[in-house]
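User: Structure with zinc ion, tokens only please.
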Amino acid sequence: MDKLCFGIDIGGTTVKLGLFTSEGELLDKWEIQTRKENSGEYILKDVAESIKNKITEKSIDNSQIVGLGLGVPGPVTEDGTIIEGVNLGWGIFNVAKTMKNLTGFDTKVGNDANVAALGEMWQGGGKGYKNLVMVTLGTGVGGGVILNSEILTGSNGAAGELGHIRVNYEEKETCGCGKTGCLEQYASASGIVKEAKRLLENSKEPSVLRSEKEIKSLLWQS
Ligand SMILES: [Zn+2]
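Assistant:
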């Protein structure tokens, strides 16, 4: 029987899940909503539930599962502790241990952009390369830097956080990270919506973008 594993990408809006062979072949993928109420306490429970449902649906034997790999939006230490999960409402806790307790499967956790960069090096656009930079655009802007086949973590695990490089010294609004003028404030999905609103407020030109509903529908189409 094939050895299998689950890859899980926890985002600010949705959680993307994939079922893979341990050789990296994608067998199935799906999404669930990220429920951020109550400081994000339902997120991992929902993921565990979804994985259990998939195991039942596909008649997978638990012994086939090698483990789970999780990407989370924030800096993560070696043992799977998230240091800051501002987009999810999370505090500091060990995500790997929590997932293991919820599912019974061994779990590895990393910063979402860092593990995405590893994935690209293994099976994607970075195949065959040992040095690469990966940029992720979503609710936030993430980055992963791979140097000599290894994730560049830096002294506090935030070396690849390209979204929080300051690009505007004039900015008055605060970024989710607490600083001002970060790239993420302009280049993320939420940043682009905010920028569009700013421009519309300062203009009398007619535009379909004047209703939030239409902005959203345009964003989801693209
Ligand atoms: Zn920031």
